[in-house]
Amino acid sequence: LIPDFSYENKGPNQLEKHGRAIVAQSEARISSFRPGYDLILPPLDKVGDEPVWQVAPSLVPITRKYLLSFYGEWNQQTQDSDSTLLKSVIEKLQQMDDGKTKDKLYIKLKCEGKKEVVAAAGDWHLCDSVEERKKILDESTYSLILAPSDPMIISSSALQQRLYEVLRSGAIPVILGSRVQLPFAELVDWTRFSIQLPLHRVTELHFLIRSISHSDLFKMKRQGRLVYENYFSSPQVILRTLFGVLQSRLTIPADSVRDTPSPSIFNASFTPLLLDFLPNESEPEEVLGPLETPFPSPSYKRNFSSVLGERTESWNTRFHALRLYGNTPWEHVIPTEAKFLGSRMGFRPICDGEGGSGKEFSAALG
Predict the structure, then answer these.
(1) Do 75 and 122 meet the contact criterion of CB atoms below 8 Å apart?
(2) What is the pTM of this model?
(3) How far apart are CA 252 and CA 337, in angstroms?
(4) pLDDT value at position 16?
């Protein structure tokens, strides 16, 4: 595994340089990126380590001041068919911003201040500071992410940072472009909390985002918050997710959760109340006799079955793919008759299933 956070025009000799190593990077070009083998990461040097509750706004109200926002400047240095297409997309976005609907849009295609992140040719600059961009994103329901016009660029630091900031602010990313490679896309289902459209469908964008109901909108926002909290919230979490992807590829179960004792609610001066004597049995005839012999607790045998058969649910629904729990509420329930037919789980038949009178029943109880 080679984490690569630098950007350079990587050619075909990239494979010869790294050999069979897996390259995890924020910058990727189509000539050197190997789908299903290499990995895309958010830019670790731009990711903060603050607690999620401190930086992430509330998920309600469901809709915010701006229906859609975008703030960036295109670094146009090429003239090709993709550049021509992107120019038409820019014109359509300007028409949306000047529209007569009641929806408020925040679309600025020129940097008013300094460019914090200078993008590569064909990519989009990040304007102003992180704090200024966060103010806009915290008031946006959807946030637009435009793919670079250079067809060779499938991921860039500017694009990944913009995507990270959108998730942190609780907005829904709207990705225009079909060549964009998303972080950990082989396991994280981005369709649950983002909208991905090709550039040619920019004319339908306003209608599509308005047609999403509030219930579906809140579901997407909640899913995005869970993905951000569990997989992207800090450099440590991102690296842990990276190794979780490698574990999933190698079919290696995750680390077990450590048992931690519950803290006591009493202080050192507390004295528990004790009985001086045991009360007499009020109904001694109701006591069923001595306890049965102890039997061992059932062992956890789903280490590999949870990795093989429940990978999608673990990463996108339960969010415990990076930890292995001894017991979960998602255990599969066997049919009732299976407890009597050939299975040693559940009921323990008396006299191997032959039954008996009160004597055999008492013997089974010990």
Answers:
(1) yes
(2) 0.82
(3) 34
(4) 57
